[in-house]
From TrEMBL:
PROSITE patterns: RADICAL_SAM. This is Radical SAM domain-containing protein. Signal peptide: none annotated. GO terms for molecular function: 4 iron, 4 sulfur cluster binding; catalytic activity; metal ion binding. Residues 14-230 form the Radical SAM core domain. Pfam families: Radical_SAM. InterPro entries: Aldolase_TIM, Elp3/MiaA/NifB-like_rSAM, PqqE-like, Radical_SAM_PqqE_MftC-like, rSAM, rSAM_sf. Its cofactor is [4Fe-4S] cluster. Keywords: 4Fe-4S, Iron, Iron-sulfur, Metal-binding, S-adenosyl-L-methionine. The keyword Ligase does not apply.
């Protein structure tokens, strides 16, 4: 029997990526020592999309009915009114989830209520220590710990269903990991994300102050395994921050599942990869998608760039 070849036109089949992360602003009320994109001080800050440009982009991706659109920053709540509008538009258009990553400092009952009302039901907050001393040191902001804990309580009170916490291990907070876990258990958190420090942006400038040793990483991985074996919430998700780059250039190379948009409209292959492939000020996102963004990872350039980054995962 003659063999039949079947080629798929991914741009025809897929309307858009599974997930889209959007830095709605790169302005930030913090200057965290480990911030991978140097928020508040990078070149994007003074060239951000206007409210009108953001709304037009959101209307366009609303039509794609994506699985998840995540608002990040910077501190997204600096543009909270715009986020309410965007989330509402996305949910009304059929987006499955709209999520948000915040440092929690600006959270109030009213903001939490407005977020919930606009359709945001997944929020991630960072807790980087078991006490103000360590958390505030990394976050470079007095009062950051107390406000982050308060934000979690506020979000729970208004009924946000999915509140995840992220923890960034550093040389001075890593020993507190078990205490952080216990604290989050008391707060009713179900998922804790931990990943090795990204050696980019401000983290690079502060390596000598914050970089854990290999021994500290190994100890942390052992603690994570022990905690997960006990099955006590929150379940800890430990992963290499760049493992998506391996997936994208190998098993998921046929079609792009995740796209990141910077606050100035740049489309990047990954938030951790300095490879800009377009800008939504120049052409519509859907035009980029059809013109080849959908199969971006089949190209040599992102593949080659993607191999430059490897991070310690604690298993060696
Ligand atoms: S890590 Fe988050 S909160 Fe800290 S400076 Fe960067 S964007 Fe702001």
């Amino acid at each position: 029997m003659e063999e039949q070849s079947m080629s798929i036109n991914y741009a025809e089949v897929l309307k858009g990526p599974h997930q889209l992360a959007f830095d709605i602003t790169n302005k930030c009320n913090f200057r965290c020592l480990h911030c991978y994109n140097s928020s508040g001080e990078n070149i994007v800050v003074n060239n951000e999309l206007t409210d009108e440009e953001v709304i037009n982009f959101i209307k366009e991706i609303g039509e794609m009915k994506l699985f998840n659109v995540c608002f990040r920053g910077g501190e997204p709540l600096i543009r909270k009114e715009l986020i309410y509008k965007c989330a509402k538009l996305l949910i009304e258009a059929g987006t499955t989830y709209v999520s948000l990553v915040t440092n929690g400092y600006l959270m109030t009952e009213d903001i939490a209520y407005q977020l919930k009302k606009s359709g945001i039901d997944r929020i991630q907050i960072s807790i980087d220590g078991a006490c103000p001393t360590t958390h505030d040191k990394l976050r470079n902001k007095k009062g950051a710990f107390d406000k982050a804990i308060k934000a979690i309580k506020i979000l729970k009170n208004v009924g946000i269903s999915n509140i995840d916490v992220s923890f960034c291990p550093t040389s001075f907070n890593i020993a507190e990991f078990d205490e952080v876990h216990s604290l989050l258990n008391e707060l009713g958190i179900k998922e804790l994300r931990v990943q090795p420090l990204m050696l980019l942006g401000r983290a690079n400038q502060h390596l000598n102050k914050i970089m854990p040793t290999q021994f500290q990483y190994r100890q942390l991985v052992k603690r994570i395994h022990a905690i997960n074996l006990r099955g006590k919430n929150p379940i800890v998700e430990w992963g290499d921050p760049v493992d998506h780059l391996i997936r994208f250039r190998t098993i998921a190379a046929n079609c792009v599942s995740y796209v990141s948009i910077r606050a100035n409209g740049d489309i990047v292959a990954s938030p951790y990869l300095p490879l800009v492939v377009g800008n939504i000020r120049k052409y519509k996102f859907s035009e980029y998608w059809k013109a080849g963004l959908v199969t971006l990872w089949q190209n040599e350039l992102p593949k080659k760039n993607g191999t430059k980054y490897t991070f310690y995962n604690g298993y060696e």
